[in-house]
Design brief:
By secondary structure, the protein is of the alpha/beta class. 49% of the residues lie in helices and 20% in strands. A five-stranded parallel β-sheet has the order 4-3-2-1-5, sandwiched between helices.
Length: 110
């Protein structure tokens, strides 16, 4: 049974993004799982930059979630600095996502 989860928030839809962030935060706080990591990828990155509610939710993720965002996508959208200012680790994420999967993290995509 998997006890490690990688939540990938890729949607540009506010309600779905908030649901993914909330699940990840609560899974950590309530100890539903042993470890949860959160990555933002694709349209969610522009959404964070544009929406104050999503910004607050992303910024409030526990440090243990190691929240990260894709630098390639962020650079294209012109939001790299904004995402970094929210505490997200902005870098090229292909290797990071692959490493988490190899380490046994189950990917869950919102």
């Amino acid at each position: 049974m998997a006890d490690k989860l990688l939540v990938i928030v890729s949607t540009g839809e506010k309600a779905k993004a908030l649901a993914g962030i909330a699940y990840a935060a609560n899974a950590l706080k309530q100890r539903w799982l042993g470890d949860v990591k959160v990555g933002f990828f694709g349209p969610s990155e522009a959404l964070i930059a544009q929406d104050a509610d999503v910004q607050r939710a992303a910024a409030a993720l526990p440090e243990d979630a190691s929240p990260f965002a894709c630098k390639f996508i962020a650079d294209q959208a012109g939001v790299t600095n904004q995402l970094a200012s929210l505490g997200l680790d902005v870098h090229y994420v292909g290797e990071t996502i692959s490493r988490y999967i190899k380490e046994g993290y189950l990917p869950m995509v919102f």
